[in-house]
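Human: I'm a chemist; would you kindly supply sequence and structure tokens for a protein?

Assistant:
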Amino acid sequence: MREYDPEVPMKKLKRFLKSTKVVYRKSTALTKIVVAAAVALSIAALLTLRIATDNTRNHTEQLRQEAISAEQEQRRLEEYLSQRGTVQEILRIAQERLGLAEPDSVIIQPE
């Protein structure tokens, strides 16, 4: 029985690499066309994704602005509704819209 020599596999590999010759062949026209088409389709896909991303970003910003406007309008309406029931608001409406006055006030109207 022989003992294992760790150098033997390396020697075999070196002998194999010396005896092996790598040959590079020129690519065919069909291969070049396929690669060019793949590159062109990849570029088109990336551009399409970029446009979709930009559109989504713009739409998101537009929705964010609409949400801010809606929140401001909601606060304004809540404040308006909270003031509608107060005595001061009722008196203001009675004076401005209906021309009424408090019982002990004096009204001077020009002729």
